[in-house]
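SAMPLE LOG
Freezer: B-3
Tube label: C17
Construct: single chain, 352 aa
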Amino acid sequence: MTSAERYTELVVSGGPRELGRQIGEGARDLVRGFCEVAMQQVNRTLRISRDSAMAVAETSIKLAEGYSHDMVEELRGTAEAAGVSLADLMLLQVRNQLQADEGGCTSFSLASVEGLGRVVAQNWDNDPFLDPYTLVLTRHPTGKPALTTVTQAGLIAYIGFNSEGIGICLNTLPAPSRKFGVPHYFTARGILEADSLEGAVTAVSRAERVIPANIMMTTPQGPANLEVTIDNVYVLRDAGDGIVTHTNHARHPELAAVSSGYPELIQSRPRLARIDQLLEKPAESEWSFEQLQTALCDHENHPQSICRHPNNIPPHGFWETVFSVVIAPEAREMYLTRGTPCDHPFERYRME
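STRUCTURE (predicted):
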């Protein structure tokens, strides 16, 4: 079912090539549309020629193949069924290698939310231009964990959870990058093929990474956050209080100098202080879903608030909270707004 408040939903199953073919058939218009406008989105914040971008995409195919042949095979199936080239699909995976920033998001992981169990959540602050190409996609790969993601059509993985109890949210971490490496979305998929925090760290560590990233997680071992650079993976855990929070600056002590070398992204530190205040440990043993909603809808320091709306502040005034998501892997469901959470409902999506 699809409405103005819900994203298109698609369920696929099978081996890698068959998964891809079903995605390409079931979301053909979204995949083709996203491929057609990918360079337009890149050039919102950075001027780069299509030839230069496609050269990065072509090189990345080989690097991604070395990381996971199955993932590239899935993209081949999608390309065949959607009627686009593999390089066109790879361009979707490497867009964030061509842009300075991908979004200024606020995320958190909680050990126990009433009625849901472990939860990971975030406001995804980005270009609203991406909304028409977004869907909720459930994959049932042969011999691997099932995974449900909210994603742009054609990406190998994005924000979501798997059947083994791992949930992930993704946001920007300013730090050094390099021109070529395994695209970030492939390591996100690697995490969603894991069954533990240790397996997730291995999935990221074994890649020759090209960009830094922040990955907020819920795992069977509890809340965790990965601050990923091209050289290391730093693991942040809760301090015994069942909560980990993050915005867009490094929190690990070893990364303090790195973080200080970059301009602050959309009031990252004030947003972190605010989310910590809003999610202060409740007197009861568990957080409530209502408390999460209140935090994600917060407008303090507007327009650079947790719930973000368009404004005239350069260079990212066009960014807004495109969706807000609360992921509960133990319940095999997530709650998702299509638009800012202050004025759009949280719709429930289940892994089927």
